Structure formats: structure tokens, C-alpha cells
Amino acid sequence: MESSSMPKLRAVLFDRDGTLVADVPYNGDPALVRPMPGAGDVLASLRARGLATGVISNQSGIARGLLTEAQVTEVNARVEELLGPFDVWEVCPHSPEDRCCCRKPAPGMVHNACRKLGIHESQAALIGDIGADVGAAEAAGAVGVLVPTPVTRAEEVGSARFVAGDLAAAVALLAAEGMIQDARAEESA
């Protein structure tokens, strides 16, 4: 039975590094992009259900002078080449010291992505590998799902409302909560 209190999602947003692709610190080389296991299948299944997909990524290497915006754009293009087109990209180029409103766990990028998609934040989920991802989702009014990796701290796992072992399990969890259904079927009803 579906939970009536859970919103129906129209978009699933993802953290990039450590979630969609293997985390290579301050990666400016598209040749180093490696999709996480199952990422392509998960994205294909979401797109087949009519859900929008997007990427929400902190890239403080730009502010720190370790990367250029052009390098980040090239890496993002490689992610799209390997995993298919995304409906929206949001990248924060700031360092934590900038205290911007977009760097996760601040909600700015989630708000921007939802505005660009024409949806309310409650109609989006953000799947990521650290507490800042979940924090950004919750601060924006979206659903956050944590998919822990070796860099995820135990307290982040303990404080997350939704935790899944991998991307496929994260989407299955959202479906089990009644938040994901076939959006195309809903439109034709």
C-alpha cells in the first residue's frame, strides 16, 4: 500500500562523485571518469518511468585553483557520454570558506534544479554518498537518500532517514515508500 503522506517524485537528482561516478578527488580529466556499478541501469530505469534526472555537484577545486570550470565541464560531458543525458546540472564552484548558498549542505543547487525542471522541491529526491547531500535535500524540502561509501562517516549514516546499499536499492527504497511510479502511466490516466 502506498504511503499517502509521501510525495510523488518527478525528478531524481544525484551527487556526482562517489555516487554516479567513482570519486577521483578534484578530477579534471574526463579519461578518469568511471561509472559506479549499476548507475547506467538505474538512470535508464528512471528515464523509462518518465522521471527527470539531474546532477548536483560541489566542485570546490575551482575556487581552490585546482580545476578550471572548463575541466569540470569536460568531466561532466564525459559523465553524460557514459550515463546518458541529464535534464539539469548544478555545479557549485565555491569553497566552504565562501559560505555561499549553493554549496551542499546548503539547499541552493536543489532549489535551482527544481526551478529549472518546473517542479516543487517535494517532488524531487537527491541521492548521495555523504551527509551534505542528504542535508541539502532536506534543507530544500526534497527527499534525501544516503548511499554510503568508505568515506561516509558513521554519524552521517546514523542520522539519515533513508539509507540504501547502492543506487538500485536507493531507487527501490523510494518506490517501496510509494514515491516513484510510472509517470507516463500517471499522465495517460
Question: What layout of secondary structure does this protein have?
Answer:
Layout (H helix, E strand, L loop, with lengths): L10 E4 L24 H10 L3 E7 L10 H15 L4 E5 L15 H10 L6 E5 L2 H10 L2 E4 L7 H6 L7 H10 L6 H6 L1
Parallel strand pairs: 1-2, 1-4, 2-3, 4-5
Question: How many structural domains does the protein architecture include?
Answer: 1
> CA-to-CA gap between the ends?
19 Å
**Outline type:** globular
Q: What's the CATH topology name? A: Rossmann fold
In the CATH hierarchy, what is the class? Alpha Beta
Please state the CA-atom Rg, rounded to the nearest Å.
Answer: 16 Å
Secondary structure category: alpha/beta
Low-pLDDT parts are 185-189
The percent range for helix content is 25-40%
Task: Give the DSSP E fraction (strand runs of 2 or more residues).
Answer: 5-15%
The helix/strand order is EHEHEHEHEHHH
Per CATH, which architecture?
3-Layer(aba) Sandwich
> What composes the largest sheet?
5 strands, parallel
